[in-house]
Amino acid sequence: MTTLGEALAAARQRIDRLDARLLLQYATGCTHADLLARPETPVIAPAYAQFAEWVERRAAGEPLAYLVGEAEFRGQVFQVSPEVLIPRPETEVLIDLAVDRLKTQKTARVVDLGTGSGIVAISLALECPQVGIVAVDLSPGAISVARNNAGRLGAAVDFRQGDWFAPLTGERFDLIVSNPPYVADGDPHLSRDGLPFEPQMALSDLEKGGDGLACIRRIVAAAPAFLNPGGWLLFEHGYDQGAASRNLLTAAGFKAAFTHPDLAGTDRVSGGQL
Asked: Is 155 left (phi over 0), alpha (psi -120 to 50) or beta?
């Protein structure tokens, strides 16, 4: 029977050391301390079969989060599946900027457009419990994942399935947030770093020959009709889309349009106030 140490050593020949260790821990239920102190512990056959399958799939490029079905974001563990994007630390900038605008308000209504796994809506619901949160996504599969995450984490979020503002007719909000698809169709990044395994409609607007801004254009143009006076729009975008995003905001009547960088210093979130 294969031991923990042998399984780990074999996997490290094929995949990253940390990935190998984490997959072995998920497959066997052991801890990092177990691996260090008792590497001679035998791995039961079903656990080893699961581990071997995961190593195969990870070696083929499938993201670790999809293999184990979860990812950590902002101190919480979120369920993920190939129906939704894997949470990325850059999106914390969007949430930080939203929290800054909400923490002084006793009540507010917020909508998260293109919620995916629900990380933005749920994080805001947990950190600003006085705020009413609505979350929209076109994908029924994404809504299902997000609803499960909200239930597990005890977050009060009203989920709606539909295309951007379509499920919100007649409603007004104090803040609109979004992490929309913004990678241009055909961008070489879409073919590497595990992105082929993620939902393409959540990454790119799939507009042939486009610049990746099609969804952002729709959101910015429609947002004023769904905002209260003084309301804010904040959205994540690509590293080279800051200037274009500010221009769109200004053209739509938003004042003081700005772009905020992520921790790497890259343009990441733009916004403005109505």
From this structure: beta
